[in-house]
Structures are given as structure tokens and as C-alpha cells.
Design goal:
disordered N terminus; 10-stranded mixed sheet; alpha/beta; 6-stranded mixed sheet; elongated
Length: 1111
């Protein structure tokens, strides 16, 4: 409870935000007169209109009747609503509300306390600090107010529409509590001057009112109840009394200042009053601080509420004639006038009254006044107006928050009464204020009023600062004196003042704001208000995107940036989620092509589909961007998406497509792009939930040639390519979505237990890396006779990299084990391959189980059948005929050592193998087992050097490896293959000489020189005909794929476990494959023969390195 001697009184209401046009007495009077005059004028116009209508009825018939009905409706509308009130100006709409709100009861009962504690200098300094923060905040308020209309709720409306609902709701509710407490404290402060003048024990005027703590609560409750009644009756009642109340306050201020000039010096020992008049000695006595039982922070905490109230004018913006002119001008004038009055009062009181009087008598202004009763009435009137203002402003803010549905518990308060009066909010505010009277120690609550208002001021400044920094083109306030630095200094000043006044209260207030912010963020639905943070994020993103330079890109910082081309989202849900996990913090773009001949129709479909796709991304919870294109064909549209996806240094480096749908006549494909794309061979796409994109119009099926054109375009652009096969079964088999992921179980050593340790079948992510080699088909021969060839070790490494990235995702890490699966031809090569690959995995920091499989004698039915077919007499005769003189003259063969475990270009006809495969055109690819790894894993390039040395490369074969039996060439000069050490732009070595014999069996085309069939050694011919030793390397692609398919199927389910997804290498098509539908279908069938019947398979072809061993 506030005693008559307690200095800790927070008398001012917080920044008022009334929605009614009656902020001052002048405004009320003018409004009432205007309503009456306007109504009379409206009725006169209606009467004249009726007379005119009656005249027209004489000659107009039915038209006159219709006009009479319209006039009757107009008369009823005017009678029910009345004329619109006159708009307010700067004086009555802004200046008076701000001045009366700032000039509070602290002037009457605590000015002496300030001077007695911190002196004249300290008091002036405190006002300067408080008004600096207030003035800077006023500049921010002026900027926001002149950039748009501030509606009901005042400062809450400013913040919520500028910073978003989270800031607006949390800070607005805090501001409501601060305003409510300010009104309650003014009701408490009302008791002190009343008891000093009318108390039964010490009243100066009359001694009639009982005194005591419970009586004080009663008097405050009665005042609060009367103010509540006035508010419930509406703003008109308040307007009728505002003129008289304002006149009383102005008269009291005038009498206070006049008394210093007119009152003669006197002393009253009984009351402890020593008034010296204007005296330099008294001024020196009161000049400097002399703290007694107080601190600077506590004094500033009591004084700062005398500086607030600047929101009163801004909240009236909808009722002003010229808000952009009135708000800045009226608010700044109000702040300036009250500051001058405060400084004048501090200097006058410090120069005329002794410090002992100021310290002991808080009613000193009334004691030294020539008309003491005027000061008493002025103090009481100020308390009444502040209580009324606090009650109305708080209820207005509460109603505005309730209308915006930010807090569910406030929903009943959004209903309004007559004339949009916040009836329910007023009742709620009255109840909370009444409870505050029974807290016991009101002084303990008073600091939070200061804190809550400072928080509001701070975030108003923050809002303006963010708007300015975001450089939004629509932030164009007509107030020209606002700068970014003024908002920054104002915000910092508010936070610093909070910590200085009471650090504990500041931290508690901030904690409450954080809790309210989190509540609104997680419970409030999105609001269509606009959010300045989006503008700021855009501004910062643009700035940093400009600094993201592709020329500074380095393999050490590679990350997957995925572009997923999708046709039918219903059938691609699992692939969309899978790529979202695979991106692991990188860029993720979902692309879709709308294929139409008519661009106008396509754009209407585009505008219809775009919001549906965006809602789908939200529903699936994937962190992806959307990129849509309109074109006449799928491949052209996909090319546009690949070219346009991303921005600056953030562009996709992996393009992912679903596999081609062989059932082109049906539209039930797995849906990823090239078209309608993905053939999964399953009809497991029935989903129970309704998706936002279910109603979109799908494209017609894509052709094989268009699908291949997309692949060729992607590779030509230098992007990595991923083809997803069979991903429709990913969720149904392994629960990719909608399942709870249990926390990993740990043993005593803290290690994560595997699924088998928990009694569950182990589930795996299998990596089958295979190298692919191909001769360069463009400019194969340079001017100096050097030939460039590629062995795609990049794809080998990307398989390992993507599998590792997927395993880093918590979901996949907890449920699946990573395995690397390699294969060799013979069992005797297993140990050596295991050592090589294990070293590679250690160097690449890949943590995985390593398994090396062999084919010969391993029970692979497809492999054994292929070997038997190649060993038949007809196959031997065909091989011998292939080495005849005519063939030798056309294709002189240089025996080249085999690079196992790689895919290489074979320019001989395919041998009909176990699969009954027909001969193919030259230029295909085949896989090679057991390729030795380079010392530096960045190595991917091979160069062929032609020399005049006709020596055979047969002597340079790998020890223990079989020579290639299916290479040919046409060169008269001896062709010597060599490894060239070159450096990339990043300084890494392209190839080292650890394995100088790891050469791809690449055909050399167009080498100038003589044709000499004698270069073909007899030993080579004999080895060519030794078909019983036929290896995996010699088999056609289709046969190799079927062998690998059988091996993968067997290993995927071996040991009671199961494989969730398989990563392996994708063979690139020959250039020009898309020009032939036959070749396109052959290429697609080759891929399908590898992946058919397996768990979901992700095939990858890389065009650049993705990992390095260097620091």
C-alpha cells in the first residue's frame, strides 16, 4: 500500500491508445457540436429531397415510387448512424492528449523528493535522460504513423503490423499490463492528496474522511468503479467532463508557476516548511545530490513514468485530419512543453525551498502555493483523468489483441458494445485493477510499469530500425527527421535504462516477453499482415548472395544442392522426402514443367498450380524452393528449370529424376520428371490424405528421346545426375514418413546399439560404387597428338559421399547401418581389394561396414550361364573370325591392360552372352571389377600419348590381372598410354603414379598414322580366342547389369537384414543417344535391368569431385 510518505509512486498511465475521438476536452466539445449540426443538415437535405421526389412523382409514375423507397432507406441510415464526426486537428487531437498524459501526479507529490535526493542537477539530468529516450521514440512513432494509418490498439497495432504477430502480441500484452498498472497506481495516488486535505486526522481543508489502509483501498476502489462506469457509458460522457478537467489542470499548473514569483518568503515550523523565495544560497544547497536511503537507479525508476505518454497522439491517427502533420508536430510540441515545464519547476523549487522541507514534506507545492486548494484539486483531477485514460487505453489494447486471435483465452473479449465500445475488455481491466489494490505493497509493482513501457518504446524503435535497414521501397514516411541511428540509439537507451533502473525486473520482464512470444509463435495461425523480418531477411540474403562467389568454390566445402524434377506429386511423395533428407543443409529445389502449346492457357494453369505446390511443400514439411516452367515440351521446360534454378553461388549441383515410365499409356507412374516419369513397376501410390496438388492438370507422358535429352542436357551443363528407381515402395517398406523415431539405445560405453543388438533385423543403406571410364569423343586428338580420356572416379566417390550424407541425418542414422559393397572376379582378389577400399574409406572419413564379394564360383546363376555361353564352340569360332586379316586391317588392335571395376568404352561388337543379347553399335560402356585406386582420390583424368614406339603394352599389364580382350584401334604408329601429372585449379593432383598401370581399355579413334596389322601380336590373338577364361569385363552391358542385379538382390536380404536404399553408379549415355528412340529405349532397359526387383535404387553420375583428403 502506498503511504503518504512513500516516494515510489508511479502515477502516469502508460502510452494511451484510445480508439475514441475524445482524447481531450476540446476534442469532446467540438465533436458533440459537430454531430448535432451535421444531423440537422442531413435531415434538411432529406426534407428537400423528399419535396423534389414528390414533384417528380406527379409526372414520373413508377420511377417516383422507386425514388421514394431509396429516400426512405437513406433517411433510416442517417437516422441510425448520424453524421460523421469532425476530424481532429493538431491541438485537440495530439497536443492536448500527449501533454495531459505526460503531466501526471508526480508533479504534485514527488518533485520535492527528486530534488532532495539527487539535487537540481540530478533531477535535470534524469529528465534529460528520460526525455532523450522519449524524444527518440517519438521520432520513430512519427515515422510509423506517417507511413500508414494506425488503427485501434495504437502501439500494439504498430508493432503487430510491422514486426509480426509474435512481437505485436507479446509486447502488446505487456504494454496492456503496464497501462493497467499505471491506471491502478493513479487510483492509489488519488488517495494521498485527498487524505492530506480531507483526512480525519490531518486534513488541511476538512477533517471528514476516515483514514487507514483499508479505507485507502476503499477510496481507490470507489474511484476505479466510477471511472469504469464512465467508460461503460461511452466516450461522450468522458468528453463532457474533459473540458472542465483540462481547465482545472491548466489552472493548477499556472498557479504553481505564479506562486514562485508572487509568494513572499515564510517559515512554518509546525509543518516543517522553510520557503526562502528566490535565493542563490538555497540553490547552492539543493544543487548537488545527497542520497538518503535511496540510489540513483531507484530515483530514476520513480521519475521515469513522468516522461511517458507519447503514444496518446499516435493512437488518434484515424481521427486526425492530417495525421502526417499532426502526429509529429503535436507530439514533439507536447514533449517539448512538458520538458520545459519540468525543468522550470525543478529550478524554481530548488531555488526557493530548503532541502529539509523537500525531504520531509511531499505536499510542498500545495504548502507554498498562494491558493493551496487549486493545487489539491489539480492533483485529484490529474489522478482521475489518468485513471480514466489508463482504463480506456488498456481496454482498447486488450480488445485489439483479442480481435486478432493471438491468445485463445482472450476470445470472449473481442466482442464490442455500442459504438464499438470495448465493454467486455473494460470489465476485465476493472477486475484485474481491483485485484492489484490487494497486493499489499503497490511499490513492488510500480517498477514493472516502467519496465513494460520501456519494452514497448524499445521495440517501436527496433521496428523502425528494421524497416529502415531493410530498405523497403514502401517504407516512405512523410516525417523527414527520422534516421536509422535515432531508432538505434533510442532502442539501446531503452534497454540500458531498464537494466539501470532494476536489472532483476528487466530480466523478469524480458523472460515474460520471451514466453509470450513463444506461445504466439507456436499457437497462432499465420496472419496476412506482412512481416518486416521478411524484408530484412531478403535484404541480408541479397547482400550475402553477392558475396557467395562461385569462383571461390572449393571441393572441401561441397554440399549436395538438389534439383528434383517432379511430374506427379502424388506419386513422388517418398522421393520428395528422401531428397529433403539427402540435401543435409544444402539447397533443395523442386521443379515442375507445365507442358502446353497455348502460353495463355499455360499461364492460367501456372497461377492455379503455384499456390498448390507451395502448400504441398508446407504440408510435407520439406525445406525446399519451388521452380516452375512453362514450355511446349518436357525437355525444353526441364532445361529452363535447370538453367534458372538457384541464384548466384547457390545453384543446384545434382539434378534428380525419377526413372522412366515404360507404361507410357498409363498415368500412374512414379511421377518424377522428365515426365510422368518414374517407372517403379508398382501400384503402391494410394494415399489416404488429401494433398493440395491433387487437383492439378498433369502433362501427357514423356517420350524416351525427350527423357534422354534431359539427361544429356544435364550432363552437358556439368551437373551431377541422379536417377531414382523404385522409390514408390520406400515408405511402405521402411516407413519413411509418419513414424516415430525412437531415441538410439546406448550401452554402458555410450555407443549406439545396432538393430540386431535390440533383437530387430538390421536395416542397411547399401553403397555399390563402380567406376565408369569413357574416351573423350570431342576433340579426342589435340594438335600434339595427345588424347584425353576420363575414368569417372568422381561418380565412385559421389556414391560414397551421398550415402554418408544420408547416414548423417538423425532419422537414417538411428535406424540404418551404412554398408559399402564391392566385388571382384576371383576369390583370390578379395583381400587385396578389401585393403585398398578400406584405406580409401579411412582417408575419406566414411564410417561403414565393408563387404567385398566375388563372382566366380559364388553361385551367381546369371554369371555362370554367361560364362558357359561365351565358352561354347560357336562363340570360339566367332572370336577367331573376328581376328582375321580383313578385320585386322580395319581395326588394328593394341593390347591394353585391363582396369578392373570400371565401365569403359568398347568398340567391338558385343558377344552374345548368357542373356542372348544381340550385338550393339560401337561406343557402349561396360563395368570393370577391381580397379586400383589412385594415391590421391582427386585423380580422374587419363591421357593417352601417341609416340613412335611401336612396342606393345602387353608387357605393362598388371601382375595377376588378365589383359583386355575386347579393345581395338587403327593406328600405324605404336600407341603408348601414359599417366600425366596435372594440377587442377584448386591445386590438387589429377593423377598420381601409385598405380601407373591403371589404364582404361579405351579405344583410340582417329589417330593419324599408318595402318599396320602386324602390330597385332600372335599372343594377343591366342588370348582373344581363349574364351573359357571369359571374365565379367568382357561381357556386354546387359549381361553385366543382370549379374549385378542378382548379386545385389542376394546381398540385400542376406543374413536376415534388409536394405532400405541402394546407391550405385549411373552409366552416362553416349552423346547423341537421344536422337534415336531405339538407342534411348536400349539405354533405359539397361538401367532397368540393373535396378529392377531391388529396393529403391539411387543411381548417380558425377561430373566433379565432391570430397577431398586435404585440409
Amino acid at each position: 500500500m502506498l503511504s503518504s510518505r512513500s516516494p515510489h509512486l508511479d502515477s502516469r498511465s502508460a502510452d494511451d491508445t484510445p480508439t475514441q475521438p475524445f482524447a481531450s476536452s476540446g476534442a469532446a466539445a467540438h465533436t458533440l457540436l459537430t454531430v448535432g449540426d451535421g444531423a440537422r443538415q442531413s435531415m434538411l437535405r432529406l426534407r428537400q429531397s423528399d419535396e423534389t421526389q414528390m414533384q417528380s412523382q406527379d409526372g414520373g409514375g413508377g420511377i417516383g415510387c422507386l425514388g421514394a423507397q431509396q429516400q426512405q432507406r437513406q433517411r433510416q441510415a442517417v437516422t441510425s448512424s448520424g453524421a460523421a464526426p469532425r476530424k481532429l486537428g493538431t491541438w485537440d487531437g495530439v497536443f492536448m492528449p500527449v501533454t495531459l498524459t505526460i503531466w501526471g501526479i508526480l508533479v504534485y507529490v514527488r518533485m520535492g523528493f527528486f530534488i532532495s535526493q539527487v539535487g537540481v542537477v540530478g533531477t535535470i539530468g534524469s529528465f534529460v535522460c528520460g526525455y532523450t529516450v522519449t524524444t527518440l521514440t517519438t521520432l520513430s512513432i512519427s515515422a510509423i504513423s506517417t507511413n500508414g494509418t494506425v488503427k485501434g490498439g495504437g502501439p500494439y497495432y504498430m508493432l503487430s503490423r510491422s514486426l509480426g504477430p509474435e512481437f505485436g502480441g507479446s509486447i502488446g500484452l505487456m504494454f496492456y499490463i503496464g497501462t493497467l498498472l499505471a491506471g491502478a497506481l493513479n487510483a492509489v495516488a488519488f488517495v494521498e492528496p485527498m487524505m492530506n486535505n480531507f483526512g480525519s486526522k490531518g486534513g488541511d481543508v476538512l477533517q471528514v474522511l476516515p483514514e487507514g489502509p483499508w479505507w485507502d483501498i476503499l477510496y481507490s476502489s470507489v474511484l476505479l468503479a466510477l471511472c469504469t462506469v464512465v467508460c461503460l457509458r461511452g466516450a461522450q460522457m468522458f468528453a463532457k467532463a474533459s473540458t472542465f478537467l483540462s481547465a482545472v489542470i491548466i489552472a493548477s499548473i499556472f498557479m504553481i508557476m505564479a506562486s514562485f514569483a508572487l509568494r513572499a518568503p515564510f517559515e512554518d515550523e509546525t509543518r516543517g516548511v522553510y520557503y526562502s523565495g528566490w535565493s542563490a544560497e538555497t540553490l547552492r544547497e539543493n544543487m548537488w545530490p545527497e542520497l538518503v536511503a535511496e540510489s540513483y537507479s531507484s530515483v530514476l525508476g520513480v521519475l521515469f513514468p513522468a516522461c511517458i505518454g507519447i503514444m496518446a497522439g499516435a493512437s488518434m491517427s484515424s481521427q486526425l485530419r492530417k495525421p502526417s502533420k499532426s502526429i509529429p508536430k503535436g507530439t514533439l510540441w507536447g514533449v517539448g512543453v512538458t520538458f520545459v515545464l519540468y525543468i522550470a519547476l525543478a529550478v524554481s523549487l530548488g531555488s526557493t525551498t530548503r532541502r529539509a522541507t523537500l525531504r520531509s514534506n511531499y505536499n510542498v507545492l500545495q504548502e507554498i502555493n498562494i491558493v493551496p486548494l487549486v493545487v489539491a484539486v489539480g492533483a485529484l483531477t490529474t489522478s482521475v483523468t489518468s485513471t480514466l485514460s489508463g482504463l480506456l487505453s488498456a481496454a482498447s489494447v486488450l480488445q485489439a489483441i483479442a480481435k486478432d486471435d493471438l491468445f485463445a483465452m482472450l476470445a470472449p473479449l473481442k466482442r464490442v458494445g455500442r459504438n464499438d465500445s470495448p465493454t467486455r475488455a473494460i470489465f476485465a481491466t476493472y477486475a484485474i485493477s481491483q485485484v492489484a489494490f490487494f497486493v499489499g505493497d503497490t511499490n513492488a509493482v510500480a517498477p514493472y510499469t516502467t519496465m513494460f513501457n520501456l519494452i514497448m518504446f524499445a521495440f517501436v524503435n527496433v521496428a523502425c530500425l528494421v524497416l529502415k535497414l531493410a530498405a523497403s521501397v514502401n517504407f516512405r514516411p512523410t516525417f523527414q527527421y527520422f534516421k536509422a541511428w535515432t531508432a538505434a540509439v533510442g532502442a539501446v537507451g531503452c534497454f540500458a535504462t531498464m537494466l539501470f533502473v532494476d536489472a532483476l525486473s528487466a530480466l523478469a520482464s524480458t523472460a515474460v516477453v520471451v514466453l509470450l512470444f513463444a506461445y504466439v509463435h507456436y499457437t497462432c495461425p499465420p496472419k496476412p499482415w506482412g512481416d518486416v523480418t521478411q524484408s530484412l531477411i531478403y535484404h541480408q540474403c541479397r547482400k550475402f548472395m553477392l558475396r557467395l562467389d562461385l569462383r571461390k568454390d572449393h571441393v572441401k566445402f561441397w554440399r549436395p544442392q538438389i534439383l528434383l524434377l517432379v511430374h506427379n506429386p502424388r506419386n513422388s511423395l517418398h522421393l520428395i522426402r528422401f531428397c529433403n533428407a539427402l540435401k543435409k543443409g544444402g539447397l533443395y529445389v523442386i521443379g515442375h514443367v507445365i507442358k502446353r502449346e497455348d502460353f495463355g492457357h499455360a499461364m492460367s494453369e501456372f497461377r492455379r498450380q503455384e499456390p498448390a505446390w507451395l502448400r504441398l511443400i508446407d504440408v510435407l514439411g520439406v525445406k525446399a524452393f519451388l521452380n516452375m516452367a512453362v514450355d511446349k515440351s518436357d525437355d525444353a521446360g526441364a532445361r529452363s528449370i535447370v538453367f534458372g534454378a538457384g541464384l548466384g553461388g547457390m545453384r543446384p549441383n545434382i539434378v534428380v529424376m525419377g526413372f522412366f515410365n515404360f507404361l507410357a499409356g498409363r498415368e500412374a507412374a512414379d511421377g518424377s520428371m522428365g515426365s510422368q516419369l518414374t517407372y517403379d513397376g508398382q501400384e503402391q501410390h494410394q494415399q489416404k490424405e488429401v494433398l493440395p496438388t491433387d487437383g492439378i492438370e498433369l502433362n501427357t507422358p514423356i517420350s524416351p528421346t525427350a527423357y534422354l535429352r534431359i539427361i544429356e542436357d544435364v550432363l552437358t551443363m556439368g551437373k551431377a545426375l541422379g536417377i531414382a528407381h523404385g522409390f514408390s515402395g520406400l515408405e511402405t517398406q521402411h516407413g519413411l514418413s509418419g513414424l516415430h523415431i525412437p531415441a538410439p539405445t546406448t550401452d554402458q560405453a555410450g555407443q549406439k546399439k545396432s538393430s540386431s543388438a535390440l533383437g530387430q533385423p538390421t536395416q542397411y543403406i547399401d553403397l555399390w560404387p563402380i567406376q565408369i571410364g569413357s574416351a573423350a569423343t570431342t576433340a579426342a586428338v589435340s594438335s600434339d597428338g595427345r588424347h584425353t580420356y576420363l575414368t569417372n572416379f568422381d561418380s565412385y566417390v559421389m556414391v560414397l559421399q551421398l550415402g554418408t550424407v544420408l547416414h548423417l541425418v538423425p532419422y537414417w542414422n538411428k535406424r540404418y547401418t551404412l554398408r559399402v559393397m564391392c566385388f571382384v572376379e576371383d576369390q583370390r582378389d578379395v583381400d587385396e581389394e578389401y585393403r585398398r577400399v578400406a584405406k580409401l574409406l579411412r582417408d575419406l572419413r566414411v564410417v561403414a561396414e565393408l563387404h567385398v564379394h566375388y563372382m566366380r564360383g559364388a553361385g551367381l546363376e546369371t554369371y555362370d550361364r554367361a560364362v558357359r555361353a561365351a565358352s561354347s564352340p560357336s562363340a570360339v569360332a566367332a572370336a577367331a573370325a573376328a581376328t582375321g586379316p580383313a578385320v585386322q586391317a580395319q581395326h588394328a588392335v593394341q593390347p591394353v591392360p585391363l582396369p578392373p571395376n570400371s565401365r569403359v568404352r568398347q568398340h567391338c561388337s558385343r558377344t552374345t552372352g548368357g542373356g542372348g543379347e544381340s550385338p550393339s553399335t560401337p561406343g557402349g560402356f561396360s563395368m570393370r571389377v577391381n580397379l586400383p585406386m589412385p594415391l590421391r582420390y582427386e585423380a580422374t583424368r587419363l591421357e593417352a600419348v601417341t609416340t613412335g614406339d611401336p612396342r606393345s603394352l602387353a608387357q605393362r599389364g598388371l601382375p595377376g590381372r588378365r589383359r583386355n580382350t575386347s579393345s581395338y584401334g587403327s593406328s600405324g604408329a605404336g600407341v603408348v598410354w601414359d599417366l600425366q601429372r596435372r594440377r587442377r585449379s584448386d591445386g590438387s593432383m589429377v593423377l598420381s603414379n601409385l598405380y601407373p598401370h591403371a589404364l582404361a581399355a579405351l579405344t583410340i579413334e582417329g589417330v593419324p598414322g599408318k595402318t599396320d596389322s602386324t602390330l597385332v601380336s600372335s599372343s594377343y590373338v591366342s588370348s582373344q580366342t581363349t574364351l573359357p577364361d571369359t571374365e565379367f569385363n568382357d561381357m556386354p552391358i546387359g549381361t553385366q547389369n543382370r549379374i549385378l542385379n542378382e548379386m545385389m538382390r542376394r546381398e540385400s536380404s542376406k543374413g536376415g537384414g534388409s536394405t532400405a536404399v541402394i546407391f550405385t553408379t549411373l552409366q552416362a549415355p553416349e552423346p547423341g543417344t537421344s536422337e534415336s528412340e531405339t538407342k534411348s529405349m536400349e539405354y533405359l532397359r539397361d538401367i532397368d535391368s540393373l535396378a529392377s526387383g531391388l529396393p529403391p535404387v539411387f543411381l548417380v553420375h558425377a561430373t566433379s569431385l565432391t570430397v577431398t583428403t586435404s585440409l
